[in-house]
Write a structure and sequence with these properties.
Structural class: alpha/beta
Radius of gyration: 14 Å
Largest sheet: 3 strands, parallel
Shape: globular
Strand content: 15-25%
Strand order of the largest sheet: 1-2-3
Distance between the termini: 39 Å
Number of helices: 2
Length: about 80
């Protein structure tokens, strides 16, 4: 069984039970360490999650597969 860690709280203050806001860099490194030691191999993120993508890139040491989402593209023309 694969478990993917959601990362919305890594970039924005999100969640009804989130009483501490966005985790610090130190807290985020600890989260990554615990996730990896628990067998989690994937992180789910999105551009809409504030600076979550940037923080994952900076602090995760490339130890995870990243799944990121982006808005629908309305046209193939740029």
């Amino acid at each position: 069984m694969k478990i993917t860690l959601g990362t919305v709280q890594f970039g924005i203050n999100y969640g009804i039970s989130n009483q501490h806001g966005v985790p610090s860099d130190t807290e985020l490194k600890t989260i990554f360490k615990v996730a990896k030691s628990s067998g989690i191999q994937q992180l789910d993120t999105a551009k809409a999650y504030g600076n979550s993508e940037e923080r994952i890139g900076k602090l995760s040491n490339s130890k995870f597969d990243i799944i990121t989402k982006f808005p629908n593209v309305a046209s193939e023309k740029i």
